Amino acid sequence: MGRVPKMTPAEAVSALRNPLAFIAARWTPTPRTVRRAALAALVMSVVIVVTGGAVRLTGSGLGCPTWPKCTDDSLTTTSAMGVHGVIEFTNRMLTYVLCAAVGWAIIAARAEKPYRRSLTRLGWAQFWVVMSNAVLGGVVVLVGLNPYTVAAHFLLSSALIAVAAVMWQRTHEGDEAPRPLVGKAVQQLVWFLVVASVLLIAVGTVVTGSGPHAGDSSEIERMPLNWENVSKLHAVLAWIVVTLTFALWFVLKAVDAPKGPLDRTRDLFLILLAQGIIGYVQYFTNLPEVLVGLHMLGSALVWIAVLRVLLALRERLETAAPAEVPGPATGATVGTRA
Fold first, then answer.
1. Given the DSSP bridges, would you call strands 314-315 and 333-335 parallel, antiparallel or unpaired?
2. How far apart are CA 92 and CA 56, in angstroms?
């Protein structure tokens, strides 16, 4: 093992002023490392949605009745708060895991050679969405699980998933101008699909806000709507998304589209099929908590699949790796900076 070089005072100051640039100057991750970092951030953005759903479905939304502390006198949960306090506090702690995953994605993107500003910006966008949603999560607790703030909390989590999914996709591409793989009519059809999916997710939060799973065993304010009627509207939107997906698959086959868009559309249809089965079963079985949790996971997966369809409509050439030239004396290879 070689000796670790000592850091000079000037280097220490530089590291404090700009730690990301300091790391990037001394470490170059492989493309696979960058992709895995982006994927870890995406996976954690889905996990935090599922665990947040578990908090609500177990009635643990006020397991820690205040924020940022768990109680007025304790930062962590206490034995007197029981299992609900443990569930709520565990979900709060997972936010730090999410922050670590996003931070790892930012560091890996910043250190990649050649430097890709667009990729780093997507990482920082995730960071600020996470911070905003953490504050909003605190507001949700402080206002006693007001259903409108809970809905906003979920929608912001969906925005985080979107940014994370785009970053993961971009790690497989270069920074060249995108080249469309399909015509404008197909692109417009996909945008209709995206808009319908956004409406589907938004109405889903209204179903949650007016439905029986309030998030805590105490009396919680609900949206003044008939949740069964809202559920039927949610189902109609789901059928619209399914119909648009089915139509898109036929259109892509008719225009002899490349394999990428066809495969992503097929994946979306299969996920929608599974999500629809879960949705109908949970509706006719009086919303059992396990199925509602699976439906929340399915919602995140549907959203990712929709975005993958959209991103599959164009391609970017992968950025060429830094060239290698012989070293001046030893014949070792040295990477040239782009």
1. unpaired
2. 13
Contact status, residue 62 vs residue 141, Cβ threshold 8 Å: yes
Q: Provide the token pair at 8.
A: 């000079």
Q: How far apart are CA 20 and CA 39, in angstroms?
A: 20
Q: What is the pLDDT of residues 183-237, one digit of tens each?
A: 999 999 999 999 999 999 999 999 888 877 766 556 778 888 888 899 899 999 9
Q: Rounded to whole angstroms, how far apart are CA atoms 214 and 31?
A: 44
Cβ atoms of residues 97 and 44 within 8 Å: yes
| CB atoms closer than 10 angstroms to residue 77 | 22
Q: Which amino acid is at 293?
A: G
For every residue of 266-307, DSSP letters joined together read HHHHHHHHHHHHHHHHHHHTT--HHHHHHHHHHHHHHHHHHH
Task: Enter the tokens of residue 218.
Answer: 């105490």
Predicted local confidence at residue 16, as pLDDT: 59
Q: What sign has the CA pseudo-torsion 297, 298, 303, 307?
A: positive
State the Cα–Cα distance between residues 111 and 215, nearest whole angstrom.
42
Cβ-in-10-Å burial (0-12, 13-18, 19+) of 89 comes to buried
Dmax (CA) of the chain: 78
User: H or E stretch including 314?
Assistant: strand 314-315
